[in-house]
Write a structure and sequence with these properties.
The complex is a heterodimer of chains A (about 1250) and B (about 400). Chain A has 46 helices and 23 strands. Chain A is mainly alpha-helical and about 1250 residues long. In chain A, the strands form ten sheets. Chain A has a three-stranded antiparallel sheet. A three-stranded antiparallel sheet of chain A has the order 11-10-14. In chain A, a hairpin with a 5-residue loop joins strand 18 and strand 19. In chain A, helix 4 runs parallel beside helix 7, helix 11 runs antiparallel to helix 12 and helix 37 crosses helix 41. The N terminus of chain A is likely disordered. By secondary structure, chain B is α/β, with parallel strands linked by helices. Chain B has 15 helices and nine strands. In chain B, helix 5 links the parallel strand 2 and strand 3. The longest helix of chain B is centred in the N-terminal third of the chain and has 14 residues. The N terminus of chain B is likely disordered. The chains are: A mainly alpha (about 1250), B alpha/beta (about 400). At the A-B interface, strand 5 and helix 29 of A face helix 11 and helix 15 of B.
């Protein structure tokens, strides 16, 4: 079971379509894997880093002392002068300064005497401190010089070394010349240069210790998120103490960057303590960090808050300019919370009363050739309206907001209609008492642990988790833990998964709170109210796209907090650590009396959760399992309430449009534009670097998909629920309840006396029930959610994976699901069938049955008309009639279609019948279609229906035929195995391999597939299995090569290129024709060990500094590239359908629309395919990669680079297929 | 299929080449065998056939040539090539033998047959189990030239009794077929050693193999179904250190240590530097595995003789999997306290039990002697504490997971 779950988790979102998804995978939002490995010889990450750093310091100190001395001597007086500047400024009497108050005295400028004394005292203390700090700073600078020298030694370029060594000296000199200048804020340009140089000097060092820089980054992120916590908690003293902890130690100080200081400055600024802000400002400069825009924003905010004097503000703005910034940039680039923006503006207006906010940047338009028409203003049409008034949409938005504010939602499951047994009532009562007891004990444990942590904090060191346990009210933490307990499956769950779930739940609630606190939500609400006008039927048509309209409204709103939060994501390690801590509390606190079920036993409290290890070849996995007593009570109670995260439900109002990678989808729930594995940051970085305008097409496509409104097909849902609540039906894919499981094998009273076969039987039984349980729960979730929204109209916000394939965000119930879920979904919007609509419905029905696959559309239609009686019978008596629908490929969708046909054909005018039914058009072997088009393969194009033909072509049969030909030839030449295989080669045998060729199946995997297929044939002689499968896979590959001659070349070219790129230590990156940047996130895994008291947890960390995994990079590139193309095709189709005012959604290569618009969609789909492939895709890819990986201008070109250049330049040749033919191909998508 | 035939599919040309190779090694038979040979034969002691033992360089060449015959790259293997080393090993294997009849020696993966010839010359009856078909012709011609002193079987000892269902494909073998072919019958556990086995554990599967053998030992299955089979195996020094570690040794003392020390008498016969062995790598490299914590400069020839009294106490082949599970769970975190472990399993009266066994309350799991674990298990077994259902579910699960 757990193995199965692991595998499913590894497969990722792409497999979410399958039916047998274990529930725990679905429970966690991202389905990516958190494979936890506890390695034996691991060391704590932090001590390791510290040790490395310590060692390095020692190393540096040991060698080259004279130079260090020189630097120190030079620097010390300079620093002193600089600090005197600061001090003078602080002490200098002036209207602004007088308002400043020392810490802890409140806003009371009425104590001049005290103030002077105090400041004198402070000055003295500070001077002492300054001296200490300076020596530290100096030695640090010296160390940097050292590090440089060392790096050069490594490079063995001693001549160069001398040259570079001069740099620090020059810098010192430059700084010295300004030692006399007497105003902090007015310190002039050259000094800035010096600081900048210092920053530069730091950089090479960063490169030098590339090895541990990923650690460095994580630690840096941890510090920042810690400080953010203090910001959230409004604890400036704590934050400053924490900062000083790092600031004071020369080694730890390297972990600080300008951002860390900025955060603390912001906390003080909010309190209006200018003095504190100033002090931090100079601290930052004293360690050679350059103030950033945010630093100035914080200072100005503070000044605005307490109405500082003009002079001080002027000085500040002067320095801002000196640092090369512009005042306007403050409003263009900085993110603000609460009233920060107003305060900054107020400060500026004190100096420049007429200052106006800079105009919002003029909206840019995407220049892609493919979307020229789409974005051209001349052809602009108004956005399709929803069938709701502004008022209605407003109400729905309020409902959605309420749900998200509650974080979770509890709904009745579909099983609630079953009558209650006395046993269940008893068990529920027991569970209620137990839960309240657990609640108390967890709360107690939490408070106790927090208390001991806070104590620890005051004595020595610092507990890193403490602030994270203060962010929410204690009750919320307890609630999260109890929720985990309720959803734990009887088979248990791995520690890592649970820890991540707990940690990220806390994170999500914290984000919600932050949005509330920063008044971001208010602004979203405000903007959304106006935004609705674009979609509502009773408002003016606006010629905007949702994204454009939203951006316009935001720009118009002007003031208030920014919609994007400042980056506040927690490092993955931190989430895990927090989760582990909570899990430990949970395991220790939750107990159940041993005699809860069996009163004869003595009363004793035993833990509900226990921790065991499971061993997988060389590593061990820690599992948390519930005690059987607990599982028994839960199953007896048969509770019918289900609690979900609010993000697991479909949205009740149109989603917030995506306007940037950080903003869109749900109102409050944090959603990522791109799904990725935990801890991977490459995608986010890449998206952030990408110019926003390049992302517009992708964002618009996602908005379009998300704006499709849905409703429930109630009659079908009722039938499904009735079967589900009865006994299920495996054939119809309705998982039966556990009570229907086969009887357990007879177990002897004493386990140890069981023999091997008995044990085996028991194992099989357990496996079977575990599987049934997870299938059942999966279906229960889906149906319950569907049932909950049965009378509502709802929306699925979308995001995408790293290749641009789109997915609905709610994980359980969505249109990507299995046959059952798809059958209960209808478009909320209805459209008349039109003249051809009924025919399309009939053809769609036959497509769903899987019959008549090789027949022309007309024949399918005729067949449908022939069996009309069966169709009507199925529609009228689904469970009591002849049940024709049950024997089809997709029975539930077929049934829904039968009902729709029945209603339409019985209506007085079928053409006017309003239908909500989605009709699908499927790409036939879509991957191969893209390959064939890329390579312009003639034969290949015919076999995957790119060429117009009377009847649909079947690529699998074609390959089978080809293989058969090869076999005949070989058989004639006396090849034994070819003779053995006579009569065994069929479409079925080759199908799986052909299908997976596109996705990079290897000979090895192909042979295994073949062996499986041949094994299924009873007559096939077993002793030839290996040889035959080996032979067959070779011939299938040859056959494909023969038919898709260019395809194989392209695939090889892609693979080989990726191999060379990965071997050169870089990851494979490319940009889709729509401008979406893509990076393959496969790295040689490196894991860090988390030391927790329950278990050491090894967490895989992925970082751009790691070396790429060559094998994965290379094998995955062709399929990923093709997926990026098929997603591009889908998005193009979506956008152009939008321009036609049609409804469009997709399940990857299966496009859905109303029956009325099938023809238009088909046409657009073909047009866009032709347009997409008319671009020089491979040439563009080659150019992009040449530019990226082999940029010319480097003097020396390594041999690998030459090889890579040659490879990349050598774009495969293409065949003679005329792409335009696709326009007329009926069966291209059908 | 078990009988020593070349596997099907070996190309004709390959066979020719192999035959040519074999020709270079034809045994030099020396004269007629004296008639007292029969008596000694009965005692398992054969007269020396006086075979020529090739020199190291020649053996290395043979290994390389065999490697070239392979269709696919064979996994890393190590061979004895030096005649001197072969003699040392032969002496070790024969050492300590009593006057009684000598059991057959099963040599796993003999390869070029340097040790095989040395053993034969020393009068030992040998069964050679070779998995690489390229070595077979050579061995078979040797088999044919002798009068039953050598038996050659195609098969891989390290793929004995595969757990996959379905037919067993050579070179994987079933132990019952193997023993039948060798003509070795099962004896009671307390009887003498019915069979000696010699082999060099394949490096990549070393730990895995040690675990699998351990399971077989505790379940009395596979080779141990036939009695207390004596293993003489070359293992890396680091694994040897693990097998013979003392309680409290930080990295070395593991679950494997405890279980092997409870199960077998462990004897170090010989230590030999890695460089003395020939590998089948193309570049002739030695491929010495790295070891960070434990010394690893040698391969150690270790004799593992199952304890005669292994199953006399509360431990039985039927409940031994619980014992293994318990030890593994305890040692998954060697620094944890034993009482904590017992308590986390919510077994009753853990503390009282430990006191009775005179185990201190603060004892870490890694500081207990193997014998303590055995006593602990027997005490738990006697006090019926393992009746909790979940414990058995876990044991079952763990068997499924480990026994792969």
């Amino acid at each position: 079971m757990s193995l199965l779950r692991l595998r499913a988790a590894l497969l990722g979102p792409a497999r979410l379509r399958g039916a047998g998804i274990p529930w725990s995978v679905l429970r966690t939002y991202s389905s990516a894997s958190a494979k936890e490995k506890a390695r034996r010889n691991a060391i704590c990450e932090r001590t390791e880093l510290l040790e490395v750093l310590k060692a390095r310091v020692k190393q540096l100190q040991a060698s080259n002392v004279p130079e260090m001395m020189v630097n120190k001597v030079d620097l010390a007086p300079l620093g002193n002068d600089k600090y005197q500047d600061l001090l003078e400024k602080v002490v200098a009497p002036g209207p602004a300064e007088e308002q400043l108050t020392p810490r802890g005295r409140g806003e009371s400028p009425a104590r001049p005497r005290n103030w002077v004394e105090k400041s004198k005292e402070e000055m003295y203390i500070r001077q002492l401190k300054v001296e200490r700090k300076l020596s530290i700073a100096a030695s640090r600078l010296a160390l940097e010089g050292q590090a440089k020298a060392k790096r050069k030694d490594k490079a063995k370029a001693k001549a160069k070394a001398k040259k570079r060594l001069k740099k620090p000296e020059a810098k010192v000199a430059a700084a010295q010349s300004h030692a006399g200048s007497h105003n902090v804020y007015a310190h002039s340009k050259p000094k800035v240069v010096a600081v900048k140089e210092a920053a530069k000097a730091q950089r090479p060092q960063g490169v030098l210790k590339n090895k541990d820089s990923s650690q460095h980054k994580v630690l840096q992120q941890t510090i920042q998120s810690n400080l953010e916590c203090f910001l959230f908690l409004q604890q400036p003293e704590e934050a400053e103490r924490f900062l000083l902890l790092y600031h004071r130690s020369p080694v730890k100080r390297r972990l600080l960057n300008a951002n860390a200081y900025n955060i603390v400055m912001r906390i003080w600024a909010r309190k209006g303590c200018l003095q504190r802000v100033n002090r931090l400002f100079s601290m930052m400069e004293s360690v050679g960090l350059q103030p950033s825009l945010d630093s100035y924003a914080a200072v100005l905010e503070c000044m605005g808050r307490n109405q500082s004097c003009t002079k001080a503000i002027q000085r500040c703005m002067q320095q801002l300019k000196n640092d090369g910034f512009h005042v306007d940039e403050l409003f263009q680039k900085c993110l603000f919370e609460e009233d920060e923006k107003e305060k900054v503006l107020r400060a500026i207006r004190i100096v420049q009363p007429n200052y106006q906010l800079p105009p919002p940047p003029s909206p840019q338009t995407c220049k892609s050739y493919l979307l020229q028409d789409f974005y051209s203003k001349e052809k602009m049409v108004s956005y399709p309206k929803l069938d709701f008034s502004v008022q209605e949409l407003q109400e729905r938005f309020q409902q959605q907001l309420e749900m998200e504010l509650n974080n979770t939602i509890t709904i009745e499951s579909v099983e609630s209609t079953k009558p209650l047994t006395p046993q269940a009532i008893k068990a529920r009562k027991l569970l209620t008492t137990l839960r309240s007891r657990w609640h108390d004990s967890i709360l107690q444990a939490l408070q106790k642990s927090k208390h001991s942590m806070s104590k620890l904090k005051t004595v020595s060191g610092y507990n890193i988790l403490y602030p994270y346990l203060c962010l929410l009210p204690d009750e919320e933490y307890v609630g999260i833990m109890l929720q985990i307990l309720n959803t734990l499956s009887p088979q248990g769950e791995s520690l890592a998964v649970l820890a991540r779930e707990l940690g990220s739940k806390v994170y999500n609630r914290y984000i919600t709170q932050r949005k509330l606190r920063s008044r971001q939500l208010e602004k979203v609400q405000e903007v959304y109210e106006d935004y609705i006008h674009l979609l509502a039927k009773d408002s003016q048509p606006d010629e905007y796209l949702p994204r454009e309209y939203w951006e316009k409204l935001v720009a118009e709103a002007g003031f208030g907090p920014s919609l994007n939060l400042k980056d506040c994501s927690w490092p993955y390690m931190l989430i895990m650590r927090l989760g582990m801590h909570m899990l430990e509390l949970l395991v220790h606190a939750v107990k159940v009396p041993r005699n809860a079920l069996n009163p004869h036993l003595e009363h004793k409290l035993i833990p509900v959760l226990y921790h065991v290890y499971s061993f997988r070849s060389s590593w061990q996995i820690g599992l948390i399992k519930p005690h059987p007593i607990f599982s028994q009570i839960v199953s007896d109670a048969a509770e019918t309430l289900l609690t979900f995260n609010s993000s697991a439900m479909p949205m009740l109002c149109p989603p917030v449009p995506w306007t940037s990678p950080h903003f869109g989808a749900f109102v409050l729930n944090d959603t990522k534009l791109m799904r990725f594995v935990d801890g991977a940051i490459q995608h986010q970085l890449l998206l952030d670097q990408c110019p926003p305008v390049n992302l517009h097409p992708v964002l618009d496509a996602l908005n379009q998909l998300g704006n499709c409104a849905w409703k429930i097909n109630q009659p079908v849902l009722d039938i499904i629920i009735s079967i589900f609540n009865d006994k299920g039906n495996e054939k119809l894919d309705i998982p039966p309840p556990i009570s229907e499981a086969p009887r357990p094998p007879a177990i002897p009273s004493n386990y140890s006396t069981m023999n091997k076969s008995q044990k085996h039987e028991l194992l099989l039984y357990k496996k079977k029930t575990a599987e049934m349980h997870s299938l059942r729960m999966d279906a229960l979730y889906k149906l319950s959610i569907a049932n909950y929204v049965r009378d509502k109209v709802f929306w699925f916000p979308h995001n995408m994976d790293f290749r641009g394939r789109t997915y609905p965000c709610p994980p359980y119930f969505n249109h990507l699901g299995n046959d059952v879920t798809r059958a209960i979904l209808l478009f909320a919007e209805g459209k008349p069938l039109g003249p051809k609509g009924l025919d399309w419905l009939k053809i769609h029905l036959i497509n769903l049955t899987g019959l008549k696959k090789r027949n022309a559309l007309q024949e399918r239609l005729e067949y449908a008309n022939e069996i009309m009686e069966e169709i009507l019978d199925s529609a009228d008596h689904p469970l009591t009639g002849r049940k024709w629908w049950m024997n089809t490929d997709e029975p539930w969708q077929a049934l829904a279609c039968c009902m729709e046909i029945a209603k339409a054909s019985r209506s007085p005018d079928p053409a006017a019948y309003i239908s909500h039914f989605p009709v699908h058009q499927d790409g036939s072997c879509n991957g191969l279609q893209h390959y064939a088009a890329l390579g312009r393969d003639l034969i290949g194009a015919i076999s995957v229906n790119l060429m117009p033909c009377d009847v649909p072509q079947d690529v699998y049969s074609a390959v089978a035929q080809q293989v058969e030909e090869f076999r005949k030839k070989d058989a004639e030449q006396g090849v034994k195995i070819a003779q053995v295989l006579q009569g065994f080669i069929s479409r079925k045998v080759v199908k799986q391999t052909v299908m997976t060729v596109v996705y990079g199946v290897t000979r090895y995997g192909g042979r295994l597939q073949m062996e499986k297929r041949l094994k299924e044939i009873d007559e096939f002689p077993e002793e030839y299995l290996w040889e035959a499968s080996h032979y067959l896979v070779k011939q299938v590959f040859n056959g494909i090569k023969e038919m898709f001659s260019a395809t194989r070349d392209i695939q090889n070219w892609l693979t080989e290129s990726a191999k060379l790129i990965a071997q050169s230590g870089q990851t494979v990156e490319w940009v889709t024709p729509l401008g979406l940047p893509i990076v393959q996130p496969y790295y040689r895994s490196k894991s860090t060990v988390l030391n927790c008291s329950m278990q050491h947890l090894s967490v895989k960390s992925s970082n751009s500094n790691q070396k790429p995994d060559t094998v994965k990079q290379k094998n995955a590139f062709p399929p990923n590239f093709i997926h990026s193309l098929d997603s591009t095709h889908m998005m193009l189709t979506a956008l152009h359908c939008l321009r036609q005012g049609m409804t469009f959604v997709s399940v990857h290569d299966c496009y859905w629309t109303h029956a009325l618009t099938v023809d238009i969609m088909n046409q657009i789909c073909r047009q866009q395919f032709v347009a997409l492939h008319s671009e020089k895709i491979l040439q563009d890819l080659s150019n992009f990669m040449l530019e990226k990986y082999c940029r010319s201008g480097r003097e020396t070109r390594a041999p690998w680079q030459k090889k890579l250049m040659e490879q990349l330049s050598n774009v495969p040749k293409t065949g003679k297929f005329n792409l335009k033919k696709v326009m007329d191909s009926t069966y291209f998508f059908s | 299929m078990l009988a020593g035939r070349a596997p099907p599919g070996a190309a004709a040309c390959r066979r020719l080449l192999a035959a040519a190779l074999a020709a270079g090694l034809r045994p030099l038979l020396c004269g007629l065998r004296p008639c007292w040979a029969t008596a000694r034969r009965a005692a398992g002691q054969w007269p020396s056939p006086g075979l020529r033992v090739p020199e190291a360089a020649e053996a290395e060449r043979l290994v390389q040539q065999a490697q070239q015959l392979q269709r696919i790259r064979a996994p890393l293997r190590r061979f004895i090539a030096c005649p001197q080393l072969a003699r040392t090993v032969q002496r070790c294997l024969q050492g300590g033998a009593g006057p009684g009849p000598r059991p057959v020696l099963l040599e796993c993966a003999p390869g070029p047959g340097i040790l095989t010839r040395t053993l034969l010359n020393a009068g030992v009856r040998v069964v050679a189990l070779e998995s690489n078909s390229a070595f077979l012709p050579n061995l078979q011609s040797l088999e044919n030239s002798l009068d039953g002193q050598l038996k050659v079987i195609y098969g891989d000892f390290f793929r004995l009794d595969p757990l996959v269902t379905g037919t067993v494909k050579p070179p994987a073998v079933c132990s019952d077929k193997l023993f039948e072919t060798m003509g070795v019958a099962a004896v009671p556990w307390r009887a003498d050693v019915p069979l000696k086995i010699f082999g060099i554990l394949p490096q990549r599967k070393e730990r895995n193999t040690l675990w699998r053998l351990l399971f077989a030992l505790y379940e009395c299955s596979s080779i141990y179904r036939y009695g207390r089979v004596e293993l003489n195996i070359f293992i890396s020094e680091k694994e040897y250190k693990v097998l013979t570690a003392k309680p409290g040794e930080v990295r070395a003392y593991q679950a494997l240590t405890i279980l092997w020390q409870v199960g077998c008498e462990i004897q170090l016969l010989h230590m030999e530097p890695w460089s003395s062995f020939v590998t089948n790598l193309k570049n002739g490299g030695r491929a010495v595995p790295k070891s960070t914590w434990l010394p690893n400069d040698h391969l150690c020839l270790v004799r593992l003789t199952p304890q005669q009294n292994l199953f006399t106490g509360g431990l039985k082949p039927t409940n031994s999997s619980t014992f293994i599970f318990m030890v593994k769970q305890c040692l998954a975190r060697p620094k944890s306290r034993l009482t904590d472990r017992l308590n986390s399993w919510s077994l009753d009266n853990g503390g009282k039990l430990l006191r009775e066994l005179e185990i201190p309350d603060s004892a870490e799991t890694r500081s207990l002697y193997p014998e303590d674990y055995r006593r602990l298990f027997e005490a738990l077994q006697n006090s019926n504490m393992f009746t909790e259902t979940w414990f058995h579910d876990e044991v079952l699960d763990s068997i499924r997971n480990i026994n792969l």
